[in-house]
Specification:
single chain; mainly alpha; two-stranded antiparallel sheet; 8 helices; 5 strands; 9% strand
Length: 208
């Protein structure tokens, strides 16, 4: 396995720290299954979501470049690079989900897993996979299924566009993308998403 240590270290710095570590007092959490009217603007205005998307995309790209199979590798050794990349992506997704300041909740890393797909896979596969997953998620009005849907659309389109040339990369990404959703199934946690709290003294939206 060939390792570019500067790229690997930089990718780990970008991918592993949970974004919730940096949430301040102005960040609030809301269960993703609730009505989101009045919260979309404050969700998109929270810069942490943009940071999550960009750092995941750059970190995943650096990771893909940092670990390469050695030409002379034989047997199981030739899979060392892809196993290491898959493990890092999986650990990163679990850390983003598990660390949450809301009690008994899991942080829904929508932007982070989207960035992983964009940075780790070819633009054509990533773009179509993300677009289809977003449309399907909006159509069925179930935000939490975005994770398994993104895994399915990415794997299906990746196999369609690249046949078996990116098989192991597709497996690595789809496992990492699915893990946040699996955590909420295996453990007594519910998804929450972060948004920006209103300034003190600001009026609340009228009840619906």
């Amino acid at each position: 396995m060939l390792i570019d240590w500067p790229k690997l270290i930089f990718s780990l710095v970008l991918l592993l720290p949970p974004i919730a570590l940096f949430h301040g007092e102005r960040v609030r959490y809301r269960a993703v299954m609730r009505d989101w009217d009045g919260y979309w603007g404050r969700t998109f205005s929270l810069g942490f979501h943009s940071i999550d998307l960009l750092r995941a995309a750059l970190g995943a790209w650096l990771l893909a470049e940092a670990l390469q199979r050695a030409p002379e590798a034989l047997g199981m050794m030739k899979y060392g690079a892809i196993v290491a990349k898959a493990a890092i992506l999986a650990v990163a997704a679990v850390l983003q989900t598990s660390f949450c300041r809301e009690p008994e909740a899991a942080h829904a890393p929508f932007a982070f897993v989207s960035g992983l797909v964009l940075g780790f896979l070819p633009p054509l596969v990533a773009g179509f996979g993300l677009g289809l997953a977003i449309v399907l998620t909006m159509g069925i009005h179930a935000p939490s299924v975005y994770f398994p849907l993104l895994a399915v659309t990415t794997a299906a389109l990746g196999f369609l566009f690249t046949a078996k040339t990116l098989l192991y990369e597709l497996i690595s990404v789809t496992v990492a993308v699915t893990l946040p959703w699996l955590i909420t199934l295996l453990f007594p946690r519910h998804f929450v998403s972060s948004y920006r709290a209103r300034p003190k003294g600001a009026s609340l939206p009228p009840p619906r």
